[in-house]
Amino acid sequence: MSLEEIKREQKKWAAGYEIDKMPQRKSDAGLDLSVLYTPIDLESIDYNTDIGFPGRYPFTRGVYPGMYRKVPWQMRLYSGFGTAEDTNKRWKYLLEKGNNGVAVAFDLPTQLGLDSDHLRAEDEVGRLGVAVDTLRDMEILYADLPLDRIVSSFNINAPAAIILAMYIALGERQGIPPEKLSGTLSNDILCEYVSRGMWVFPPPSALRLAADVAEYSTRKMPRFYPFNIRGIIMREAGANMIQEAAFSFSNALAYIEEICSRGIPFDDFGQRISFFFATGLHIFEEAARYRGVRKLWARIARNRLGAKNPKSMLFRFTGTVGGSCYRAKEPLNNLVRGAYGLLGNILGGAQGMLHPAWDEPFAIPTEESALLALRTQQILAYETGVTNVVDPLGGSYFVEALTRHFENQIASEVEKIDKMGGAVRAIEEGYMQEVIASEAYRSLREEKSGKKIVVGVNKFVSEDKSQSESERAFHKADPSTIGKQVQRLNTIRNERDHNSVSAALGELREIAAGKENLMPYLIKAVKAYASIGEMMEALEDVFGHFREPVKI
After folding, report:
1. Residues 2-18: pLDDT tens digits?
2. Of 100, 134, 471, 550, whose CB count within 10 A is highest?
3. Alpha helices per DSSP H over 174-279
4. pLDDT tens for residues 341-394?
5. Contact 101/151 with Cβ under 8 angstroms?
6. For residue 86, which phi and psi values (nearest 5 degrees)?
7. pTM of the predicted model as reported, rounded to 2 decimal places
8. Which has the closest alpha carbon to 10: 36, 33, 28?
9. Superfamily assignment of 54-444 in CATH?
């Protein structure tokens, strides 16, 4: 049939079955959805230029030709709690069960660059992640784990440069040079200003520090990814799937422009930029969003950033089911939510996945719940057949129409931020923060009103208490953690060479006042066993502290 014939038949079908009287449905991002999608919705799409083949520009169908046919995605669990000894034990357990590498969860004081004995740190040491104060903690964290055979993902932003310095120093102690270290560092401080608030320095200084990390990695660490742009943090704060992608791209462009201004071509580091996105439960929309994002990033890399190497055009991402999709009520339902969200990741073409355990909304996962989260990925990879065919949703009228929609909407939002002067200016003016807050409020209102259904929470609510928190075993924070951590920190302070620490911190302040790359001086301070708090304070003496704009 021709398109005109299809249009006529669709009109008759719609009239005959009173389609216009059917309930309206919206996508997770607020798009009005048709009851049915047909070739009419794809009439302006050209297969070769808009969809193409996996592994070829514009990479809509996947960044690699065979995708999961050769090997599944990288399976990892985000893990860290208590002291370095506690986390080292959990890592070894997960690695033995098939976890691919380690994704480090740091506690809140470490993420803010505070030592464990700081007054602001007292109630949070080791509670939501592992406490790391000095190189000694890193040495214990990686005890019996050879850095040349393990891939590490460091989920930290404000003190990211210091954590990388510790990783480099640790490698040297194991006899492994920087060029042999593999891993990923989030190093995406701009997302913190937008959502979570784990920032310290003003955006321009923080941007300089992030670029120092990338420049150092580009020149000396060919196997290391210096950026893992954290869309997830903004999505979990309330951004919708369009805003998450657009703001992530705008933040990435700010880093890239800063690095390129130092005379480093994009192709020299572009193939080592990765992203970390949150995936919701609208499976087809999430898959289509990732397809559109892949196509848009390839176009930005080639046309705007001047990429010549196809590898620099690839949108590499880790996906995780957003923890905000999980609920404390009837918590075992989170097992089902997680599995469906993972399916959205797979159909969207993720290269790696960090799957939250069902109890993560209210506790550090137990060994049992963490293992079940890993097994969920393994069952999907090896028992369901979803890895057999590349981009199985390709050609779907609905998915292809959504792919084009998301590509256009995300590009439009990136352009809007460009016109403001870029990500840093948009953050300083509070634009991204305001948009995310408004979206979070809208979503919460819809859930409270019942317009957005959450099973077991606002619909099909059960009086059965068998799933209640009180009847289940959850991880309990060890009250002795803070005492152990502070004692180790004090021991290090007493044993180290005070003159070396003082000289290293003084040199760090001096270099921070100029334009030289800070990484060599952070490595020097780390090797002297300066603490993360001392190094951050030295930088703050020069950079100052950021105060968030207040929107009235």
Report:
1. 999 999 999 999 999 99
2. 134
3. 190-191, 203-220, 231-236, 241-260, 266-269
4. 999 999 999 999 988 999 987 888 888 998 999 999 999 999 999 999 999 999
5. yes
6. -60, -45
7. 0.93
8. 36
9. Methylmalonyl-CoA mutase (3.20.20.240)
